[in-house]
């Protein structure tokens, strides 16, 4: 009997802990609904994915190889252009052939979020192009193509918009993680009327929630990121980073002065390399006094460690999307510092829109006000969070039942016929 093979496509293996939890969640549910299915991942670091998740994995493209990216950064502008015309074009043809072979025997190719349909740090010839390439090849292979609980927009570049719309137009199934994504695609001319809205896939794998007694002093989790404005690198906007750093440092000093314990958190091991150290350095430069152990800055290298750190807090102030989401799944009251519409949408969905502040309008006075209000209302907020995350989990069960049972059954019938 031929086994079902499901391939997941996404920006996995880069040590973005939210992305890794998304992959962990959908693999868990494949094993739950299709225990005999073979799982493959098409990603940016196959070795890391195989080691973390125990599945076979393939590289999206040679352009995501660490050695290639390192060489490309060292090349001069002329060398880069020559490389594109003399090497990359012929090599890209070979990549299409390799990708076509990779999809042999694949029943379903599932696009699983990871920020792929927005342009935060993505250009038209980066991940957007790869999504289109693999979508085209899936259709040529007769493979079911699914975009499942993906986020979309904003997309500023006209070519990126065209590429994204072409890719998702080929899908056999589309769902978005929030109404914003569906409405955004409709606003740029894509017909979404027959598409679905389901929560982020991370809500389909609930982490264990440890019993937490009342802690004195209370522990505040501060989820930070190396924030550089609408881009994603220091070259884009160092001024934005310094402004963010100043505000969060002032807020930390306020918490320390009121005898809270602060646990510093990050959600991306590769990118969030500066910010925790810079916060501590700036506190020292300002002469901020605090007792030993009042700031906890433990290293993190896995999503399990991040969950354990979040579980050891009472209230969370977080910037990265999945740091907010995982805190909510642990039933932690959250103030979100939103750098993207997806975060505001997430907070609104769980009834906590008022506890979300835009990062480009970050104001320490407003942040303190939100924190105080959140702390006063913890008793009424926690049951609301528990209710909404439970509803999200049940909604995702419905989606998994549909895509894994119904679509796979339809695909098997077609193969027999």
Overall number of structural domains: 2
CATH topology of the largest domain: Rossmann fold
CATH 2nd-level architecture of the largest domain? 3-Layer(aba) Sandwich
Q: Major sheet: size, sense and barrel closure?
A: 7 strands, parallel
**Helix content, binned percent:** 40-55%
Radius of gyration: 22 Å
Sequence of secondary-structure elements: EHEHEHHEHEHEHEEHEHEHEHEHEHH
Could you tell me how far the N terminus lies from the C terminus, measured between alpha carbons in angstroms?
15 Å
Give a quick summary of the entry.
The protein is of the alpha/beta class. Helix content is 50%, strand content 14%.
What does this structure look like?
The chain is of the alpha/beta class. It folds into two domains: 227 residues, Rossmann fold (3-Layer(aba) Sandwich), CATH 3.40.50; 158 residues, Rossmann fold (3-Layer(aba) Sandwich), CATH 3.40.50. Helices cover 50% and strands 14% of the residues. The protein has 14 helices and 13 strands. The strands form two sheets. A seven-stranded parallel sheet has the order 3-2-1-4-5-6-7, sandwiched between helices. It has a six-stranded parallel sheet with strand order 10-9-8-11-12-13, with helices on both faces. Helix 5 links the parallel strand 4 and strand 5. Helix 5 runs parallel beside helix 6 and helix 8 packs across helix 9. The chain is globular.
């Amino acid at each position: 009997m031929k086994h079902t093979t499901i391939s997941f496509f996404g920006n996995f293996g880069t040590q973005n802990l939210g992305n890794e939890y998304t992959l962990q969640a959908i693999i868990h549910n494949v094993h739950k609904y299709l225990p005999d299915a073979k799982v493959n991942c098409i990603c940016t670091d196959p070795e890391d994915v195989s080691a973390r998740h125990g599945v076979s994995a393939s590289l999206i493209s040679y352009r995501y190889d660490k050695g290639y990216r390192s060489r490309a950064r060292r090349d001069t502008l002329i060398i880069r252009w020559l490389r594109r015309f003399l090497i990359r074009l012929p090599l890209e043809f070979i990549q299409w052939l390799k990708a076509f072979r990779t999809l042999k025997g694949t029943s379903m190719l599932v696009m699983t979020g990871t920020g792929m349909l927005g342009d935060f740090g993505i250009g038209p010839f980066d991940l957007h192009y790869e999504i289109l390439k693999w979508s085209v090849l899936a259709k040529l292979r007769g493979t079911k193509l699914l975009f499942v609980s993906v986020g979309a927009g904003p997309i500023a570049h006209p070519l990126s918009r065209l590429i994204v719309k072409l890719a998702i137009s080929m899908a056999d199934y589309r769902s978005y993680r929030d109404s914003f994504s569906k409405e955004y695609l409709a606003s740029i001319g894509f017909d979404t009327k027959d598409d679905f809205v389901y929560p982020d896939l991370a809500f389909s794998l609930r982490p264990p929630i440890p019993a937490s007694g009342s802690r004195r002093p209370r522990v505040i989790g501060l989820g930070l990121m190396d924030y550089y404005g609408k881009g994603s690198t220091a070259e884009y906007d160092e001024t934005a980073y310094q402004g963010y750093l100043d505000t969060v440092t002032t807020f930390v000093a306020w918490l320390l002065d009121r005898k809270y314990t602060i646990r510093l958190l990050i959600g991306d091991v590769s990118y969030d390399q500066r910010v925790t150290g810079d916060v501590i350095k700036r506190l020292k430069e300002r002469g901020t006094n605090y007792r030993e152990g009042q700031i906890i800055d433990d290293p993190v290298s896995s999503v399990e460690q991040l969950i354990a750190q979040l579980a050891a807090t009472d209230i969370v102030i977080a910037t990265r999307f999945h740091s907010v989401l995982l805190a909510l799944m642990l039933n932690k009251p959250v103030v979100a510092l939103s750098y993207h519409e997806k975060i505001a949408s997430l907070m609104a969905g769980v009834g906590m829109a008022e506890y979300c502040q835009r990062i480009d309008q970050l104001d320490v006075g407003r942040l303190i006000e939100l924190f105080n209000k959140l702390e006063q209302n913890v008793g009424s907020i926690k049951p609301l969070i528990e209710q909404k995350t439970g509803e999200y989990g049940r909604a995702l069960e419905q989606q998994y039942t549909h895509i894994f049972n119904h679509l796979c059954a339809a695909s098997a019938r077609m193969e027999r016929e």
